Request: fold
Amino acid sequence: MDNRTIMHVDMNAFFASVEQQSKPSLRGKPVAVIGAQQRTIITTSSYEARAYGVKVGMTVPEAKILCPEIIFVAGNNKKYTDTCTRLVKLYGDYTPLVEVYSVDEAFLDITGSLSLFGKPEDIAMRIKRKILKGFGLTCSIGVGPNKLLAKLASNMQKPDGFTIIHPGAVSEILEELPVGELCGIGSRLERYLEAMGVKTCGELGRFPVKELINKFGVIGNKLHQMGLGIDENPVVPIEDTPNAKSVGHSMTLERNVSNGEEMERYLLQLSEMVGRRLRRGHYFGRTVAMTLRYSNFQTFTKRCTVKGYMNDGFDIYLVALDIVKMIRLKYTVRLLGISVSNLVTNYCQIPLFKKDRDRISVLKAMDKINDRYGEFSITQARLLDRYSHKGVIAPAWRPAGIRNVNY
Reply:
């Protein structure tokens, strides 16, 4: 893992910038991208809006107080995922080792590309120019000897910045850097470390490893390495991504529901969405989990494991109904989620009964139609009036494979 050169590309205010580029009337104005439903929060704000203090996670009323002139735009997930897919193709012109970290971030291992394209600065400037010319967007690029430091570098100059952290400068940069600046150390972990007297990366690197392990378990050694700027994780291209451990979908409901019967249509829709993705990835699963969030934001998950493997959305739905019967609702329900785990790939068991073989043929035909004409072009009759859910892109989204979701 020594002598690597890793690049991190971070698109600036991605959702808002894509909207401003596609709608010239929004350029130079404070813009906030929100969900399409009534219950929504800000998913991204333009830099013009950020100047007023508008941040991700704020509600619409909160943003209006800070910036009365703000323009709200309902997010278009398909537009963002299409742009991401095109960006990944651009990165592939410089290295085959491209890891999509999120819809607006990617890691590139350019170690083997330096002899072809020159210094890291040259490659970064080429990519920035192509993104600006081809997409009308800006990005911040960081370069370092590993992924941890490359991501740290990309965050140092925003927007439209470039920063390189050379191996010889790592200890100096980290010495006074707050631990919360490192990717992977959230606010909660930062508070725990502060309580132990650790505020900077320099202090984290010098802190006794045994004490970190006693406090945090197996991640203690990882934290020690992070404090020293060490990260041996490779850049993992999409085709080498490990098999999924679970597949799921969740949605915030259009209104709170108060009983199991009201939840059934949402559960069927979620189950069909999960089944589609399982079949696309040739996965089968045995454990169905239902996540439920009350109106007071109390959230919990119940699971049920069955004997046989399945990837039929209706079978998943039937298990979800069994889970619902075990729950006595305390409050009205705000959010529902369905996921399937205990996965295997390419499970093959020839159905004994004709009705089961016919069901498989029907699913294949439905998938073929929905692949061509769009999700839910053909579906269960009960879902003809399904909830038109347009939520935030999940952090696990990827432009290919099981984590790809058709928006």
Remarks:
- Residues 93 and 368 are 32 Å apart (CA to CA).
- Residues 260-280 form the longest helix (21 residues).
